[in-house]
Amino acid sequence: MDIENAAGRMVKSESNSESFATFSGAHKYKNISKLTSLTDALKKCGIKDGMTVSFHHQLRNGDFVINMVLNAISELGIKNIRMAQTAMFNVHEPVIDLIREGVVNRIEGSINGVVGDFISKNPLPFPVVLRSHGGRWGAVKTGELHPDIAVITASASDEKGNCTGILGKSAFGPIVYSQIDALKADKVIVVTDEIIEYPSPHQEITESYVDYVVTVDRIGDPNYIASGTTKITENPMKQGIARRCIDLMDAAGIIKNGMGFQSGAGGISLAVTKYLGETLDEKNVTASFAIGGITKHLIDIYERGRVEKLYFGQCFDSDSSTYMADKPSIPLLNVGHYADPSAPSRAVDNLDVVVLGATEVDTNFNVDVNTHSDGRMLHGIGGHQDTAAGASLTMVTVPVFRKTNPIVREKVTTLTTPGDVVDAIVTNEGIAINPRRKDLIEKVQGKIDIISIEDLKNMAYEATGGPQELEFTDEIVGITKWFDGTLLDIIKKVKM
Predict the structure, then answer these.
(1) With a threshold of 0.85, does the pTM exceed it?
(2) Can you give the pLDDT at residue 406?
């Protein structure tokens, strides 16, 4: 059937059983302002009971936004929110009251500190779901974890929502954890304390994904990015463990031109970064790249020309976020590129070596980073699983025991990273290499001393009297997932 469209042309509305929408006029899309208040933004996004609201954690213990948003949700009378933060810290202690009030009844995201401690004793109606960085990206990408509203903290944004974490008085580093949330969430709210002229010169998130822009007095305090696990150790025993890591790398032939490495955010791992830089200087060796979180120590190595390329996704201190603002040529590494389990290739798969921490390890080289030996859920997974599975040499650093608690033990309290992707346990009493890595054992034999994991366990038990026997209830407080989304372990409430 021929009909006349708004341009005066005779066209068919159907052809070969395919229907066409008829042109109704070249309407200019209105340039609608996105600036609004937090409460209005939540209302306009249709906030209601039972929704999923996501956040990112790159201000770490300096973040003000999670508490701010949840308080606004509470004031609107909304209940049963599922939080989908990338991580939570002690600064988010007010969330405990919101759990008690029924505002939050479900959490799928890393929990560090007091909130995890509370939930360990007071389970939510649904178990907390703990995923790695790559696993979370994959879960949001596939729809397993779907944010109804993504709240994206930005240190600077223009009025349209082109935003960054690299500029502004509260700069904390690039916003890469929320990129998948911006893409997949039904609605997106950017929260910032600095509006800049359009277009923003840095744009980790672009206006095409942003529904509303909210300005607040302060998004947080970047001085608290470097808190807890992101400070280099000053403990001589832990420094000794870090130096053993360098010895193992050297004996394994890892320290050479073109190497790629990542060191974790723990105090020992940061010491390894410092010592590795010194070793690169001594050997006149240049690494090809370093990936992961950026610290002042890594920047120092880069500035000395001992690392050709930095590939970074977050900043672990305020010095590095300030530095990155002046280095637009350094490529950003979003979490999907870093560790998306469904991607054809991931940056972590190119690592020669990664150094990671743990709360416990066992004689099968399994690793726990989520719970302490008393069963309390105090830590997230981060990139632990992702890098352990990707690197050619995965080293986990721990003391043999802490106070009266054996860290090397028969069985970890919670399984975070399976032993078949862990190559070596590096301790203050020696290095144990996974027996499956016969090639590594042969390579380092005679160059460094190796000790069996059983001997390390025996030392720990002799010094402490063995592990505390825990009795668990049937209540599940959390679960750990492997980065492919499969269930790895269950965390149960400990009987008091």
Answers:
(1) yes
(2) 98
